[in-house]
Design brief:
By secondary structure, the protein is an alpha+beta fold. The protein has ten helices and eight strands. It has two domains: about 160 residues, Alpha-Beta Complex (endopeptidase fold (from Nostoc punctiforme)), CATH 3.90.1720; about 130 residues, no CATH class. Helix content is about 45%, strand content about 10%. InterPro entries: Papain-like_cys_pep_sf.
């Protein structure tokens, strides 16, 4: 099963739909202003229109035709021909060869099913609305529109697709490797905590080493949960973290079980082998649960 993560892009889209966006405070809410808003939101360089005594001077079509206008733009975007299928977050640019775009046009792609229309967030490409703050300069607000591909010059695609499209969850073998790394760390922590507290054991009792490590495992689990907690941008975290969290939780459960067993035998020495075995059993149980419900997330970005 593959799940496509677009939460940050969806957040941006929801925030602009129905609005009149005027970034440069010039000529009202033009189609270019929506691209500028998009680029600013995602930390990308804004692709300005170019002027001079040339065709489409100052209009959106020059964004694609004159690419790359700067080294920063070349580093951030790759130019994609109109024959390729668009990806969410692509900047689609039209010329003036089709009547629907008399002065060229630019919009942000939401979806491309591969047919003669592309779904976009588009401004100034529909009838004016009653609350238009720029009458005579702009027409419609930002809409979720299906626009004809006829007259399309092509797309300007962010090179770093992960900015828009989530992360890649590592293949199963990588998750296994990460679990082994966590097991190694926990084993080292058990040994370090036990050795460090050797002098205190006489007063603290035989549970010092195990209880200390259980607390460390609990702290690590809480830290991992913080990493996985959805933030403002709600971007899905991926890679080895889910596997690490599952391992830590399993090891924590195993360690706490070992603590209970030792607590029933006051005065007994700490059996590190038993603790390690309990941690291993807990980790393997957590890994089994993780693998039973895991999904794989991939990006559909293309590097230039």
């Amino acid at each position: 099963m593959m799940a496509f993560e677009l939460s940050r892009f969806q957040f941006w889209l929801t925030s602009v739909l129905g609005a009149y966006i005027d970034v440069d405070q010039f000529a009202g809410a033009q189609c270019w202003d929506l691209h500028a808003h998009f680029a600013n939101f995602f930390g990308l360089p804004v692709i300005n229109t170019t002027g001079g005594a040339v065709k489409w001077s100052g209009f959106a079509g020059t964004m694609y035709r004159d690419y790359p206008q700067t080294k920063a733009i070349e580093a951030a975007y790759v130019r994609i021909p109109p024959t390729e299928r668009a990806l969410p977050g692509d900047t689609a640019v039209w010329g003036d060869s089709f009547w629907y775009y008399p002065k060229t046009h630019v919009a942000q792609v939401i979806e491309d099913p591969g047919y003669e229309y592309v779904r976009c967030a588009s401004q100034n490409s529909s009838e004016s609305r009653w609350d238009n703050p720029f009458p005579g300069q702009s027409s419609g607000p930002v809409l979720d529109q299906w626009l004809p591909k006829q007259g399309l010059l092509g797309y300007l695609r962010p090179r770093n697709g992960l900015v828009l499209q989530g992360e890649i969850i590592q293949p199963e073998e990588d998750v296994m490797a990460s679990l082994e790394e966590v097991r190694t760390v926990v084993r080292e922590e058990i040994a370090a905590l036990t050795q460090e507290g050797e002098a205190k054991k006489r007063n603290a009792g035989p549970l010092f080493g195990v209880a200390g490590n259980a607390k460390a495992a609990k702290d690590a689990a809480e830290e991992a949960r913080d990493l996985l907690r959805p933030g403002v941008e709600k971007v899905r975290f991926a890679g080895p973290i889910p596997g690490m969290l599952a391992s830590i939780q399993g090891q924590q459960a195993g360690l706490l079980e070992a603590v209970k067993q030792l607590a029933s035998k006051p005065g007994s020495p700490v059996d590190l082998a038993a603790v390690e075995q309990a941690a291993k059993a807990g980790a393997e149980s957590a890994l089994s649960d993780l693998q039973a419900t895991a999904t794989t997330t991939v990006t559909l970005s293309q590097e230039g």
